[in-house]
Design brief:
This protein is of the alpha+beta class. The protein is 16% helix and 43% strand. The chain has helices at 2-20, 103-110, 234-244, and strands spanning 30-37, 42-50, 57-62, 65-67, 84-89, 92-100, 116-123, 129-136, 145-147, 150-156, 161-169, 174-177, 184-186, 191-197, 207-214, 219-225. It has an 8-stranded mixed beta sheet with strand order 4-3-7-8-1-2-6-5. A 4-stranded antiparallel beta sheet has the order 9-10-14-12, with no helix packed on it. The model is unreliable at 1-19 (pLDDT under 50).
Length: 245
């Protein structure tokens, strides 16, 4: 009888490990979000790794400049002062590391053209990962309203414009428009509603950057906070999609 109990326990443990641990091995961290926040004076990087992978952000590099998360424990390649584990699912972790910026570094990022710039993210024991850094300026923050499981943003034209496209950066969300066809002609004061579906929060202060472009090559950029927690099994889904690419 004891023999069968032991065998049953071993089987249960094995099944628990099978369902809890990753089915897919990660070749490198999956970078989910890299954002510059002018108001907070920070760079924030969120990424997915296997739970037993003790790797953390070493450097965020743009051109010839490097930016480093603070470490006060003399462990130059270990956890940073601001490392957070935002989610644990199926043997994966969604982690975040933050760089605090000096006034000079803040000025540097504010001097860059556009709202999206290329950067390299370095981790211990991995090659640098090329991705984009989204620049969130404090005077471009807007409010949105919740509509069921989606978010609703209403853009009001500051002048007579013809909108060529509306897109977004650094988010897994999808956007839709109510009763709008492009090119969309708006006179000053008219508005268009933008619905954001699956506004999943991928970092501790995750924001979506919305870009509205016109037929005259004007660009309006706005950003707002994402609030919805990631669903069960989401990290595994992202890992599987990343390994297919």
């Amino acid at each position: 009888m004891k023999k069968w109990i032991i065998i049953l326990v071993v089987i249960i443990i094995a099944l628990g490990t099978y369902f809890a641990w990753p089915k897919t091995h990660l070749k490198e961290p999956v970078v989910m979000s890299v954002q510059f926040d002018e108001a907070a004076k920070t760079l924030a990087v969120s990424y997915i790794v296997e739970q037993d992978d003790s790797t953390y952000v070493m450097e965020i590099a743009h051109d010839t400049k490097g930016f480093y998360p603070p470490r006060s424990n003399d462990n130059w390649d270990g956890e940073t002062d601001y490392t957070q584990v935002l989610a644990k699912q199926n043997g994966y972790e969604l982690r975040e590391d933050i760089v605090e910026l000096s006034d000079d570094q803040l000025t540097y990022f504010l001097s860059l053209e556009g709202r999206v710039v290329p950067v390299d993210i370095s981790f211990e024991a991995y090659s640098p990962i090329e991705t984009i850094l989204v620049l969130l300026l404090k005077d471009e923050a807007v409010e949105v309203t919740k509509k069921d499981e989606a978010l609703l943003y209403t853009f009001t034209a500051p002048e007579d414009i013809t909108i060529d496209s509306i897109g977004h950066y650094d988010s897994v969300a999808s956007i839709f428009f109510e009763e709008a066809e492009f090119p969309l002609v708006l006179t000053r004061g008219q508005s268009v509603d933008v619905l954001i579906h699956e506004p999943y929060k991928l970092s501790s202060h995750d924001e979506l950057l919305l870009e509205i472009t016109t037929t005259k090559d004007q660009s309006f950029t706005k950003h707002f906070r994402l609030t919805q927690s990631i669903p069960k099994g989401y990290l595994k889904q992202i890992v599987n999609e990343a390994n297919v690419e």
